[in-house]
Amino acid sequence: MLWIGAAIAAILVFYLVFVRRPMRRVVALSLAAQRACDRKDFAAAVRCCRESHAAAGRLKEPHKSQIEAKIEIQWATALYRQGRMREAEDLLQRGFSHTRAAGCYPEMKPAYLVWGDLCADEDRHPEAKRHYRMAMQGEEQIGNLAGMIFDLQRLGDSLIRQGRRDEAEEAINRAIVLETQVVHEQMARQGKNPAKHRVTSWSLPDLHFCREQYEDARRLYREKVESWEKSATRPDNIDLGHLQMRLALAEARTGHRAEAMEMYTRAEQTSAREWGEGHPKVAAARAAKAALMDELVEVPGD
After folding, report:
1. Per-residue DSSP letters for the chain?
2. Tens digit of pLDDT for each residue in 72-109?
3. N or C terminus: which one in the chain shows less Cβ crowding within 10 Å?
């Protein structure tokens, strides 16, 4: 969500110098929507986006259409965070259609990640895969390797859920290569020798999970979950609830059912706190916990 607000703000601030008063309201409301999302007040974000879109409708072309389209995608993202899936998807369809007409489609392609996540939450994984690939193309076109890593991780997950493990492994391995490249470039900028430092990939647990090496996946996911649970700040693209769900499944697959139950509970709590009680992510955690409970009832001596 953060980069979408930044993309909108960049163009709005530029226009602000020339257009002044009408644009000031659009800028102020779009930035207010971003701040509301940062504090997870998505109801306020939706209100600000709605008002910002209405204000943008009073601007003149050629800027009006481009700004409206970008706000529609920001608005859709806030609706998705509320779990208002149909409204969010309708706005995503409209927003991307309008970006093509307005000539700003390439720069907004990374926002397909949101559409991919929406489809994944509804178990529409073939559609999610297409959207993740579009997001990855957008990030690649602007040279954002970090963004590509997140897209590849999501793509790998979608492919695993479809049983397409060879393709998933290919996506995850590419994410690992990019992670190594990004870290090495950061070290070089800091004057460090990359050859003297070991790089631990955050995508490695996904690779073990994909290969059904659940003991290794369990150990690495636990490290990753603990790290993000303790972190004071977390990037927008890190879905802690998803990681907790993955760890819970790895625990269950290795026979650690009590640990799996506890982790599903934590995933449910995280998703409710960060996405809202009505979001499909919360329902997915509850369903997984209920399924595991049914297994425990069926095997009482285990």
Report:
1. -HHHHHHHHHHHHHHHHHH-HHHHHHHHHHHHHHHHHHTT-HHHHHHHHHHHHHHHTTS-TTHHHHHHHHHHHHHHHHHHHTT-HHHHHHHHHHHHHHHHHHT-HHHHGGGHHHHHHHHHHTT-HHHHHHHHHHHHHHHHHHT-HHHHHHHHHHHHHHHHHTT-HHHHHHHHHHHHHHHHHHHHHHHHHTT--GGGSPPPPTTHHHHHHHTT-HHHHHHHHHHHHHHHHH-S---TT--HHHHHHHHHHHHHHTT-HHHHHHHHHHHHHHHHHHH-TTSHHHHHHHHHHHHHHHHHHHSTT-
2. 999 999 999 999 999 999 999 999 999 999 999 999 99
3. C
